[in-house]
Amino acid sequence: MSIQQETGQFTGTKDKDYNLIWFTEACLSNALRMEVYSRDAERAGDSEIAEFFRRAQHESQKGAEQAKALLAQRLS
Q1: pLDDT at position 32, please?
Q2: pTM of the complete model beyond 0.85
Q3: Cα–Cα distance for residue pair 16/5, rounded to 1 Å
Q4: Mean pLDDT, residues 46-62 taken together
Q5: I want to staple 60 with a disulfide (CB 3.0 to 4.6 A). Which of 1, 21, 31, 33 is the partner?
Q6: Which of 16, 61, 15 is nearest to 34 (CA)?
Q7: DSSP string, 21-55
């Protein structure tokens, strides 16, 4: 069996659930990163870029919230 065919034997978590968990973590991590980037832009006096990163942060937060809701439904 290759890693491409992994269905939980190695991780103990079904692929679809693992993927949703990974996606949630990635969105939350990205939201934190966008906070740093927007503050860097603000310190440099570039409000356009700061706002761009704030919008990206908002989208990452939305993705994380949606994924958390799906996880709650499926893992309870």
Answers
A1: 98
A2: no
A3: 12
A4: 98
A5: 31
A6: 61
A7: HHHHHHHHHHHHHHHHHHHHHHHTT-HHHHHHHHH
Whether the Cβ atoms of residue 67 and residue 26 lie closer than 8 Å to each other: no
What is the Cα–Cα distance from 12 to 56, expressed in whole angstroms?
33
- Separation CA 28–CA 33 (nearest Å): 9
Tokens of 1: 């069996």
Residues in the chain: 76
Q: Tokens representing 50?
A: 């700061």
User: How many of the other CB atoms lie within 10 Å of CB of 42?
Assistant: 15
